[in-house]
Design brief:
The structure is a homodimer of 522-residue chains. Chain A has 522 residues and is of the alpha+beta class. Chain A has a domain of 145 residues: Jelly Rolls (Sandwich), CATH 2.60.120.260. Helix content of chain A is 38%, strand content 19%. In chain A, strands 2, 3, 4, 5, 6, 7, 8, 9, 10 and 11 form a 10-stranded antiparallel sheet that branches. Chain A has a 3-stranded antiparallel sheet with strand order 12-14-15. In chain A, strand 16 and strand 17 form a beta hairpin. In chain A, helix 2 packs across helix 13 and helix 5 runs parallel beside helix 8. Chain A is globular and about 80 Å long. Chains A and B meet through strand 8 of A and strand 8 of B.
């Protein structure tokens, strides 16, 4: 997730008790050491052509001005790089000047970052210019990178010497405990591969908090957190990390109590001045799902009122006709897709969240609130059918637009009887006027298929979509992927895309909870 | 000095005793703290136009994408930079990406380093790209810079925030002790200014060794050392630093015992695989001058044989006709000037050096060597007159070429009676077919004028040449300067020129030893 909202003189509402609790739950980071498994030289500065290098050549391979060496660390990782540099020829009489480019994905190596002119900051591009004043040198780079490949380009040596990269290693970092998981052996190789990449994606986003992406934005976003938490429950089971993140969202909010779309955690904890209607409601969902896993009464007591505040804010956005007002719709993320009409989607997310809000009320024996929420849910459902259901076409239409997103969220919200819901889902992809943009919505698409018991289609979509990324060279699942437009970026340049992204990590959850056993209800 | 020579499989001759002594003499580095005295914004990326900034604006001045801020630290300095960065606007949601460019000279700020395509390594250009992952940030840059100006360009922020440079400071570094010197008050303001810049030049080159330039190459070159030592004797009087440098040259030499043109001192001491005929002879000169100052018998005993080795090597290059062979001439630096015929110059340098070698022999009571050297000197002088003196034109001609350099070195070598020498010097600049390229030769030009008692011309040249640099904005004296061609670079691009350079530091020496009192003999 990455979105830019700016509120002048934004002063978040802080809750010291919740933030203290979040600080106590800071996870231990686990480290390992990885070395390259191979290397190659790109023939031209920005070409995809390459000369393979056998790894044992490396300690003897000398790089002159303009030459490059690409190290392949074998898979996607997050961590800190150490380079041991030496030289051949005469004593170096000038510093070695290197450009380092870290790439999550082989395509990135051939992209020229100077061509990037998109709206996200180019400061996210993982590039460094390094001077080694003396050789031999051991260079420990202070910043953390997310990468599989490291391209080292010699910007300049001097005629007297060439550079040798004697050794490179990465100290990996993650709060995921791999001893909790075993590789899936389902008998279906394709599912096993997807499951493995799903866990790697989650693990590499599991740091001090659940980051949305370790390359970019490295931030705790609410919509991403919910999906990470679900996948974490079937894998690394770091329940405290979920709790910590929920407390961070509770601990710094909008001045009126709304949960922010994201929370900055460094140098201090501070709610982002970005509000997303659907993300705030995911706080309610994620809290209830955390309680399903833990039955942690302390957390329920601490965060129940905040969850209900989100629901109450959302319910205040309902108009007389039972649909959400323009502001709520405009504030809904749903998917990266400018043309998407979000009215039906936002309504669906709210109804969906009310299901979890009611469960929270039940957990607190807050019967009056429970009954109030049920009435609201019913009213919203009726309004949804009235406004969005097209009986003739047997699908949902949002202000004249048919979209997969509308079908998905109306189905997940249970606004219509199962047979009709199935009809809508059968048409969701073929009738949609706007494509699904991100794995975030693809996840909910699969969940909606499962909800109407279209299991075969769900499996097939999982394999086509997430498997398609693997076929295109993914080690971890990407922030964006469109098989028909592999270079797509919502940011005006794929060089800032994230290729290990939280909201794409859910296949392991879907496989474990829905495909390996017959699911009952979500 | 900067020159590139490459000898395959070069294994210098090391002398552990001398290197140990050199290590013991390592100077303490002195530190101070300097803050900017002003600032400005360059209007275009590479223009000379600017908007002045009042310093008190700085803590409130926010930099957006592409904007720059130039800090002026008031004068040239060498040291380490610390920046305190903050922001205005929303909480930063992306790293700050900065380009830092350090400039000794205001012109450098407007030069685009990407246009540089010369033969010296671009790794010398003092530029860094820095990511600040979190703001506020205190950035302590690990490398040492030589600069007066620091240009900070915001490569990218994000729409959410702008960068503020709250504070900048430089921890200066030098082994020069300013408490040893007082500002000159000669009654001649021009001379006083030149004297002050001369000392600043020397001080900023005085580090762990006498560096040729703190920007580039930061290395101990023999020809530069001699001039630095002379200026040091009339100013900072760090005699141990001269001794250390002589021991370093003695401690790592060419396999056949020759003194290298330069010595690398890090990570280990190692002679450069560059031999310069004239520079090796300057070891003899500098050693004798050091003894004039110190009468340090230990150093004489340790280095006498090495000095004589240089002389003996040089004398072996004399041909039957009494002139130097092609190799010796080719190996002579003299000046940056490709077209210069160096035959007469090399002969002059050798005869000049023999004067010092004879004094060394006298100090050791090595009478047979002294008498041998005197004979050699006489024979070389006679050959010089025979081959290079043109009685008709009353000047020296080197293989058909008239150059200032030839007049200078023949005069400094005392090959001809004073009246004729004066005639030669009177014609040196007007008759020369090749211009003087560097302050290194300008120094010897002034010394040759003084030797023929053309004191008025010497003072005038000192004021015109070194004063010309000050008028062009110098704080310290430059590696190259030609008033008619201010952008001249021997390296194919002025962006790698050094604007604080050892061989340009001598005006204080000339003023103190020759202009403030009537000189007797050099």
């Amino acid at each position: 997730m990455a979105l830019i909202s700016i509120i002048k003189d934004f002063h978040p509402l802080g809750n010291a008790k919740l933030l203290d609790r979040a600080a106590q739950l800071r996870p231990a980071l686990r480290h390992g050491v990885r070395e390259p498994i191979g290397g190659f030289k790109l023939k031209e500065r920005y070409s995809a052509e390459e000369d393979e290098i056998v790894l044992r050549q490396l300690p003897h391979l000398s790089l002159g001005k303009g030459e490059n060496l690409c190290l392949d660390f074998g898979t996607h990782m997050v961590g800190y790089i150490t380079l041991e540099l030496s030289y051949s020829g005469s004593h170096p009489d000038a510093p070695a000047y290197l450009k380092l480019k870290f790439a999550e994905n082989r395509m990135e190596l051939s992209e020229n970052s100077q061509d990037y002119n998109g709206w996200l900051s180019r400061s996210w591009i993982q590039e460094e210019y390094v001077h080694a004043d003396l050789l031999p040198a051991r260079i420990v780079l202070p910043r953390r990178y997310a990468f599989r490949y490291l391209k080292i380009t010699m910007m300049d040596t001097s005629p007297k010497y060439k550079l040798i990269v004697k050794h490179a290693e990465c100290m990996t970092e993650s709060s995921a405990d791999w001893s909790c998981v075993t590789a899936l052996d389902s008998g279906d190789h394709e599912l096993d591969r997807i499951h493995a990449a799903s866990l790697r994606t989650l693990a590499n986003c599991m740091q001090d908090v659940f980051e949305d992406g370790p390359k970019r934005d490295r931030r705790l976003w609410m919509g991403d957190l919910r999906l990470q938490a679900l996948t974490n429950y079937v894998s690394f089971k770091n329940l405290d990390l979920v709790k910590r993140c929920l407390y961070l969202f509770g601990g710094s909010r909008f001045p009126d109590g709304r949960v922010s779309a994201a929370v900055f955690t460094a140098p201090d904890v501070q709610a982002d001045d970005t509000f997303l209607f659907d993300y705030a409601l995911m706080f309610v969902v994620a809290l209830e799902e955390y309680l399903q896993e833990t039955d942690d009464q302390e957390t329920l007591d601490d965060l129940y009122d905040i969850a209900m505040q989100q629901v109450e804010y959302a319910l205040r956005q309902i108009q007389d006709d039972g649909t959400l007002n323009e502001q709520a719709v405009k504030d809904s993320f749903i998917d990266w897709c400018d043309e998407l009409d979000r009215s039906a989607c936002a309504q669906g997310v709210l109804i969906f969240a009310l299901r979890y809000a009611r469960r929270l009320a039940r957990r607190r024996n807050d019967w009056s609130q429970g009954s109030f929420l049920m009435q609201q849910q019913d009213a919203l459902r009726r309004a949804a059918v009235r406004h969005f259901w097209d009986e003739t076409r047997q699908l949902f239409v949002s202000n004249g637009q048919v979209s997969a997103a509308s079908q998905i969220w109306m189905v997940l919200a249970d606004v219509i009887e199962p047979e009709k819901a199935k009809k809508a889902m059968e048409q969701a992809l073929c009738a949609t006027e706007v494509p699904i943009g991100t794995p975030y919505l693809h996840h909910y698409y699969v969940m909606a298929l499962l909800r109407v018991r279209m299991r075969t289609e769900a499996v097939s979509h999982l394999k086509n979509y997430w498997g398609g990324m693997l076929d295109a060279g993914a080690d971890t699942f990407w922030e964006c992927w469109d098989g028909k437009d592999p270079g797509f970026s919502p940011y005006g340049g794929s060089v800032v895309n994230s290729y290990c992204h939280a909201w794409s990590c859910t296949p392991a959850y879907i496989i474990e909870r829905y495909l390996l056993k017959e699911a009952s209800d979500e």
